[in-house]
Amino acid sequence: MRSEFKRRSIRNLLLFLPATVLIGVAGAIEYSIVQQTGRTVYPIDDPYIHLAMARHFAEHGVFGVSLAGFSASSSSPLWTLLLGALFRVLGNHEFIPFLLNLIFGFIVTVYLTRLLADRLGSILAAIAGSVFVAAIAPLPTHIALGMEHILHIGLTLMLVERASRTIGGEEKEHPGVVLLLVFLAMLTRLETMFVAAPLALLCMMERKWKTAAVLIAGCGLPLLVLGWINVRNDWFFFPMSVVLKSPLSLSGWERIGNCVERLYGQLFATPHMAAPFGLGIAALLSGWRHEKILSANSAWGVVFAAAMTLHCAFASIGWFYRYEGYLLIMGAVAAAPSVRRWAAGFRRRWKELSRWRERILVGGCWAGLLLLLPFPFYKQWQSIGTLAPAARNIYSQQYQMGLFLKNYYEGEAIAANDIGAINYLADIECLDPMGLGSMEPVRAKLQSVWSPRFLHSWCMQHKTAAVMIYESWFKGVLPTTWIKAGEWRVDEKISVADSTVSFFALTPYDARRLRKNLIEFEANLPKHASLKLENP
Predict the structure, then answer these.
(1) How far is it, in rounded angstroms, from Cα 500 to Cα 473?
(2) DSSP designation for 535
(3) At what angle do helices 96-120 and 149-167 cross, to 10 degrees?
(4) What does the pLDDT read at residue 352?
(5) Going edge to edge, which strands form the sheet with 464-469?
(6) Under a CB-based contact definition with an 8 Å cutoff, are residues 323 and 315 in contact?
(7) What does each C-alpha distance from 269 to 147, 304, 330, 335, 376 come to in angstroms?
(8) Per residue in 483-515, pLDDT tens?
(9) Within 10 A of 440 (CB to CB), how many other CB atoms are there?
(10) What per-residue confidence (pLDDT) applies to 446?
(11) Among 96-105, 186-195, 379-388, 501-510, whose mean pLDDT is lowest?
């Protein structure tokens, strides 16, 4: 009895080992970021959009990226509201998203290790698999980014595990739990519908009508409510980040063509997606030889294959691999039972080999496959090493833009194309020519009136005090009447979209004021940024 208790205690402690390693890696990354920037800085501008909306909601009751009013700029309302609630209680601290992700990352990794241990039948194999999967997801990157993706991964894993066990008949229906999980996951990331749709279909095939109904309702209700709120506030039904990054920004046959292009380009032309997809299909077919078609393990495989296909056709991948992390982890869990069978088959075959030459040949082939296994994911591991330089890059550009506006333009209208850090650090009325934070440019493009004349008129109407943009993004659209005061250049281009930010004014008075402010602020610029003034 005591030996069994001791064995279980050791097993439970080992389940925490991969999570501890993850926290150590994430802590080392954050330490490097703080060493280079002097504070918590995120490697891309997107986390600051959530931070800006959360701060405005907590301090002013405005659910918008700027104080201009409501904006449908966030595709993760649950994450934004969670940050807003913590800001309300704890105050405005930019390290809160990182701290949340540390907590969620630890919980998700422990849960993942437990799932793998159950499916692989070995705690040591589960530890190795969990560390490998955490690296290819890559979870350290997700933690450092300070966004909602780790929370979404955890909710998705719990949702698929609970629903698949119901589909396989391993437990009774618990519609309340499934409804809660899919509801929260949907409020975290809209990609949840790619997982819930095949789950609902499998439930209907097995006549699990309650679970199917709550899966559909859990996806539909949040989408309808959020869409109604957006439309009521004169925005599009879907969040602007979804509209601008998906086929929704196109029309007619262009949407279909774009979906096909995305599917083949993202699923089959990228090794880190093609390899897990191929392995998942092989594992699913192998599983059907040993289990019934709709077992719990088979449900995992079907949902993974369907979600991977839907995501690649309608959504995006890349950019620090934050969008596809949930798919890679789902695929690992789905393939685990077949990997266990393949390993058992290899051991049996190995014992049957009597000649040492045969053992060398077979062992060498398997060793070669294991050595090649990490190859499709080397860029994910490489991305972990770029997190600190990327954060330094953001600190040298977008973060300084926010400090500049906070010092000189609080409460004024500013036009800018990167709207996260500047709105988190400064209280401004933000005009976004790219459309993420402002509807007018998107409508102008849809109505074919997007032009220098429109851009100038729009900025003049709001009495814009300064314009901070990438000129490379607005070729042929910049008004010739705008007065360029200067530009900031960073000496590295890691996570910023352009190494040069240009500063414009609409009137001679604003140009003189802008030039004076740039000269005065130059002393505050970090060593990786420099000011170049235009001749007056």
Answers:
(1) 11
(2) P
(3) 30
(4) 72
(5) 429-431, 413-416, 464-469, 500-505, 483-490, 529-533
(6) yes
(7) 27, 18, 20, 21, 11
(8) 999 999 999 999 999 999 999 999 999 999 999
(9) 17
(10) 84
(11) 379-388
Burial 194-209 (b: 16+ CB within 10 A, else e): bbbbbbbebbeebebe
- Which amino acid appears at position 59 of this protein? E
**Residues 504, 318: Cα–Cα separation, whole Å:** 32
Q: What is the pLDDT of residue 312?
A: 94
CA–CA distance, 516 with 308 (Å, rounded to integer): 52
Under 8 Å between Cβ of 499 and 492: yes
Pick the closest to residue 261 from 240, 247, 277, 241 (CA basis): 247
What is the spatial distance between Cα 443 and Cα 262, in angstroms, rounded to a whole number? Answer: 25
Tell me how many degrees the CA angle 33-375-303 measures, rounded to the nearest 5. Answer: 90
Residue 12: CB atoms within 10 Å: 12
- Decide: 409 and 393 in contact? Cβ < 8 Å: no
Residue 353 DSSP one-character state? -
- DSSP conformation class of 69: B
Residue corresponding to tokens 């601008």 = 244
Q: Give the pairing type, strands 464-469 and 429-431.
A: unpaired
Per-residue pLDDT tens for 434-484? 989 999 998 998 888 999 999 999 999 999 999 999 999 998 899 999 999
| Res 2: pLDDT | 57
Q: Mean pLDDT score of the chain, rounded to an integer?
A: 91
Residue 293: per-residue pLDDT: 81
Query: Residues, the chain, total?
Result: 536
Per-residue pLDDT band for 291 (boundaries 50, 70, 90) equals confident
Asked if residue 239 lies in contact with residue 436, where contact means CB atoms within 8 angstroms, the answer is no
Sole residue written with tokens 């008129």: 457
- Tell me which residue of 217, 186, 185 sits closest to 200, measured CA to CA: 217
Q: Using 50, 70 and 90 to split pLDDT, how confident is the model at 257?
A: confident
| Rounded Cα–Cα distance for residues 469 and 360 (Å) | 61
Entry pTM? 0.94
| Whole-angstrom distance, CA of residue 49 vs CA of residue 233 | 19
Query: Domain spans of the chain?
Result: 387-533
DSSP per position, 470-519: -GGG-TTTS-TT-EEEEEEEES--SSSS-SEEEEEESSHHHHHHHHHHHH
